[in-house]
Amino acid sequence: ALTGFYGPPPLLTVVNTLDDYGHEAIGLDRQAVIDTSNKLRHERPYYRDFESQFFGFDPTVQTHKLPGGATGSSFEQAQKGGFLDRMPEILQNELPRVQVELGNFWSVTPGSQILWTTAANNIVKGVRYKDASDDLKNLLLERYGKFPFYKPAPEIYEAVFGKDWKKIVRNEAGYQKIEDVDLDIEKRLLEHAIGRKATADELVLYLQHPHDAADFFKFEEKFGKTWVLPPKVWLKRGGFSIGDRFEFPDAYGKHHSIEIGPLRRTKDGSFMTILGVDYHPEPILTVVEDEARDKVKPKTITAKEIEALALAGDIRATLKGVVNSIPVAVGETVSEGDTLVVLEAMKMLTNITAEISGEISEILVSPGSSVDIGDKLIMMEI
Question: Of 108, 141, 172, which closes a domain?
Answer without folding.
Answer: 172
